[in-house]
Amino acid sequence: MSDDIHHINGTIPCFCGGGPGHCENECEQCSPCAQGSHKGKSGKKIEEQKIEDAADNLFDYVELSKRTLGLNWNKLSMEQGKESIELFETLLRSTYIDSITGYTNEKVNFAKRVPLTDTTVEVQSAVLTSSDQIPINYRVVKKDNEWRVYDVVIEGVSLISNYRTQSREILANNPPQVLIDTLRKKVGK
Amino acid sequence: MELSVALLLAACFLFFCPVLHAEPEVPEDINIPIHGLQSTGTTTGESLFTASGGEAGIISLRSLEAAQVGPRQAAPAAAASLRPPDEYGDVGTEEEVPAKPQVRITDPVRPFNVAMYHFNDKLYFWAYKPVSIGYNYVVPGEIRGLFSNFYDNLKAPVRMVNNLVQGKPGHAGEELAKFLINSTVGVGGLRNCAEECFGLKGRAADFGQTLGKWSLGPGFYLVLPFLGPSSVRDGFGLLVDCTLRPQTYFGTEFFNYENVGLFAHERINSASFHLGEYEMLKKASIDPYVAMRDIYIQYRKNLIETR
After folding, report:
1. Is the model's pTM score more than 0.90?
2. Which ipTM was obtained for this model?
């Protein structure tokens, strides 16, 4: 049982996708990055930069942060809101880079696209690791004619839902500034 | 004898205790009032989260929500309009963009759970991880894979019985076939021939999932020492599944060196394939305890409802 949890833990940050069509292309860009064509410390930096650039094209960090805070978003002041977005962005980006550089040569199969509403679609995929097949679904939203990921669902566990529960628990008993301070400490600023 | 008494007691607890009746999900928008509690002071908020009885907690939460839903609905809209519009816009309510309703589990024994969480955390970093790293170094990947297949094969009776009681005889038959093929052609389960050569995938099933399919709610969140996140229902399910696993019957008593050793080896062997994942979870989460609890309940819910 605990094995399943750890299994999910490792794959939650491992996301690589985009919108319909856009999705498969971006993912193919991520895989060579993970395969480590560059060597050494400076090579690692180059790879991380490439992954970061690819990720920036895929994820809608603003949407991710807003959905994480949910209706608490409206409780934050403008500066707090802005700061929380930057901090979430940094947190998500660094965990994504860490996980992508840790994965190598996994094949990703894109299955079907399930429309959720007029502007959102769920793109279903499966990552084939050495031991088994992990179903990962990306939820993408259309904004300004661009499709971007706003949620990743791995084996039924939604990333946004997870972060939302965490921030809700913190915000239930503490003022919003505590959440911001915790995030700040987390990303090391 | 002791085992059967223990199981009987646990069954009584499960079926008669009102705390464990299935908890309906609370749709996201009704959660607004929770944040209103901040103005009433932190103690109220805390007492709702750490309710001594799960159901009592739920009732008080719901009555509070019901009382507050009226005026509260106006409040966020008003608050939003008071704030000058910024480049980010306002977040939509959940009705605009569908997400799953928030899945929750009550946590009435939180201090115990947090203590167990810290215990498991230390256990991982001080015991499982160093042993797994050493084990990884000494035993090559292929052999660890063989062990993994072997233990997986030994769990086949669990899957067979649970598939049957979940009303999936086809999958139960598939698991039986897989067990027979792997035990014979696969040399005692060391090689997963059924999947590699015949494409028999089988279906994972455990008794906690079976109880969930029979509409028993998870009860409350429980972190088990050594075993990790669980719930009352799933902990009981684990106990029942243990009776179907041959390792339990090794040796003469319920806990002795032989069967504990076998279970420990199984854990360490499987942990060797997942090194680094727990650290990644801790790094990625704001509050790892809450993150693990949430991952656990979402995963189990998905397992019960869609698989």
Report:
1. no
2. 0.78
